[in-house]
Amino acid sequence: MPLRLIFMGTPDFAVPTLLELVSHGHEIVAVYSRAPKPGGRRGLQLQPTPVEEAARKLGVPVLTPKTLKTSEALEEFRAFDADAAVVVAYGMILPQAILDAPKLGCYNLHASLLPRWRGAAPINRAIMEGDAESGVMVMKMDVGLDTGDVAMAERIAISDTMTALDLHDRLSRLGADLMVRAMAALERGGLQLKKQSEDGVTYAAKIDKAEARIDWTRPARAVLRHIHGLSPFPGAWSELEDARVKILRCELAKGSGTPGEVLDDLLTIACGEGAIRIIELQREGKARMQATDFLRGVPVKPPTRFA
After folding, report:
1. CB count, 10 Å around CB of 105?
2. How much is the CA Rg of the chain, to the nearest whole Å?
3. Residue 93 to residue 139: CA distance in whole angstroms
4. Would residue 81 be called left, alpha or beta, if left means φ above 0 and alpha means ψ between -120 and 50 degrees?
5. Element holding 167 (H helix, E strand)
6. Contact 205, 123 (CB under 8 A)
7. For 143, left (φ over 0), alpha (ψ -120 to 50), or beta?
């Protein structure tokens, strides 16, 4: 029989998992998401989360509590009589009482190869640190920060062409399929759990905007990974003639020079070792554009330097 599931998620990363669970016949008895925030053109209209929007289209009841730590929140959660809860980037800590409420437990989809990159920004950190691969894992949740026993995993290689958005989208689709398989195994009573290793634990701290400024003295590949790990948000930036420019996509290039120096007419920039060529960028207050389009309007030639 299909499982009775509570789904808990907030951003667009979580939406494919919700849709796949529904398409595979599971009964989503409720969706929990973060409360709407002001947005829109004037910043005044409350904007529901992507998960709430998807759930309402499916006709599933949506709850947006500010906390799950009250007795009222626990009783409301228990009243759904769920077999399990599926959690994907919900953004709120689940207390032990909530974790214990579903008959079969709560299962989280995490976008890293645990125990590497526990925490808030695993996709960004994996790229920024030059990891060769990433992946998604289904974990039975406990009260620790991504410390629960792991059930299933899928891996993908991280290439130097991948931005955080590229990896986000691939892991979102891969994770949806993985969670569907995990819930099928749980339904059959065949979901096997394995404790996480204590070796190789790292934490993916939330991205601080202060990290976004490009350090051109680093080797070219480190600069490239820093740029791609922050693309498109918050966007790694540098200053060109006193104007801030976000660099959103680049590639390794031949050449050398003073760090930050423009080496040719194609936006090849010298790093501490080697160089990168800018492919896509965004001037402050402007739309993102290809470097070739930018250069048609703003020629940048040697010996200009990015600060």
Report:
1. 19
2. 22
3. 15
4. left
5. helix 164-188
6. no
7. alpha
Structure tokens at 300: 């940048």
Residue with tokens 């540098």: 238
For 18-53, how does the pLDDT look when each residue is reduced to its tens digit (9 = 90+)?
Answer: 999 999 999 999 999 999 988 776 667 889 999 999
Q: Give the Cβ contact number of residue 131 at 10 Å.
A: 19
Report residue 52 as tokens: 């709430």
Torsion of CA 22, 23, 25, 30, to 10 degrees: 10
Distance CA 146, CA 139 (A): 8
For 196-223, write each residue's pLDDT tens digit. Answer: 999 999 999 999 999 999 999 999 999 9
Torsion of CA 87, 89, 95, 98, to 10 degrees: -20
Which pair of tokens denotes residue 4?
């009775």
Instruction: Encode pLDDT of 108-133 as tens digits.
Output: 999 999 999 999 999 999 999 999 99
- What are φ and ψ of residue 37, in 5° steps? -120, 155
Give the C-alpha separation, 107 to 99, whole Å: 9
Nearest residue to 206 via CA among 106, 89, 38: 89
The residues pairing with 118 across neighbouring beta strands, listed in sequence order, are 203
Return the closest-CA partner of residue 85 out of 11, 191, 198, 9.
9
CA dist 278 and 247 (Å) reads: 7
Residue 207 CB partners (closer than 8 Å, separation 6+): 121, 124, 230, 234
Q: Does pLDDT of 289 surpass 80?
A: yes
The H-assigned helical ranges of 42-163 are 50-58, 71-78, 96-100, 122-128
- In this prediction, residue 38 carries a pLDDT of 85
227-285 pLDDT per residue, tens:
999 999 999 999 998 899 999 999 999 999 999 999 999 999 999 999 999 999 999 99
| For residues 186-192, average pLDDT | 97
